[in-house]
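call fold target=Deoxyguanosinetriphosphate triphosphohydrolase-like protein
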Amino acid sequence: MQHSAAYAPADAERWDPEPDKRSGRTAFQRDRARVQHSAALRRLAGKTQVVTPDTGHGGPTGAAVAEHAWDASPRTRLTHSLECAQVGRDLGTAFGCDSDIVEAACLAHDLGHPPFGHNGERVLDEIAAPCGGFEGNAQSLRLLTRLEPKRFSEPFHRSVGLNLTRATLDAATKYPWPRGGHPTDPASPKFGAYEDDLPVFDWLRQGAPGHRRCFEAQVMDWSDDVAYSVHDVEDGLHAGHLDPALLLAEPERAEIFRVVRARYAPPSTGDTDLAAALDRLLDQHWWPHGYDGSATAQARLKDATSQLIGRFCLAAEQATRERYGPGPLHRYAAELIVPPDTRLECAVLKAVADVYVMQRPDQELRRGRQRELLAELGDALIRRAPHGLDPQHRALYAAASDDASALRVIVDQIAALTDASARSLHARLTASSPGYVWG
């Protein structure tokens, strides 16, 4: 089994041992290819990132934009994952990580994302309460190691998913603990493995020091933060939802800072520090202080996007190198160091997108309808399964050993749906209750 020289042979082991199909490829190149060719990755094209394609209309950025419906060509979960992978591959390479491990982890990090995003996660967590709850990151591990059809293992008598290497699975694990196992907050809703996936989770974490994330997982996580914070603001500007001039107004700034403290930074963070972080970005010569949708404005916005990504990645690279020196960094040899000021700048961008894109009144109405749709869909499947399940999940449902296992199959089925297929399946299963219009 070929692997990068910097990695130990155990890092390239697979849950179900299998021979190389062709010499000259490393185990980690095979991992990246398996994720890239997976149906789960393709399905992310049908899952909204922030701005829904059919709602991109001109907004508060001026008459030139507001006069007509604006085709924002917004990002989906797939395009976000591709962009995250590009950022992660370059950043990982700069540190001497195996670039295929980092890229595969970035491509895989959102595979468990259900229809309607974090909104859908909350509903599925309620539906799945009797079988251990739902968490998108734990669902990603389940897809990679069980659900995504790639290799069927005779010793395990079931699919072993993509059968990735230990190092790649570890790199894709953002929260390396089961539910209730958070090292400092047992009540945290964030976790990385369901109870019935603990055998493979324990295997991939062999040799890991406690709850520490491997270095590649930290690179993946920061690349995710950088990609979505920057691109969500870009999409908001392009769709006409954000007027850059509002970032200079005190009432709007106060609301941004409130959201930062509530969701993206420690509550004790002071407004002075947050104002300084926002002003550092606004003071850059490339910051887009206006946007009218013209080719010139689009090019300037793209340059600002590139500048922000470079700023955030270079700050992490320099700070980490100052701590650990110039040699290759991988697995558990280092911690990714992101300067506090850089984290605050990233957090402020997240809050800007939150306030001006996600908190729009039409979006909250849409999210309410989506929650209702998923709750009804879950109820219909629980009552009518195996009717409504696709062939793969129907077989898993028939093989379920108890009610909890059967419920987990139903949750797996819903999580696998795109936004559109969730609406379609709901319509078919609730055809006796017409009159609903779902957002």
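return ok
Residues 53-71, 434-439 have pLDDT under 50 and may be disordered. DSSP finds 18 helices and two strands in the chain.
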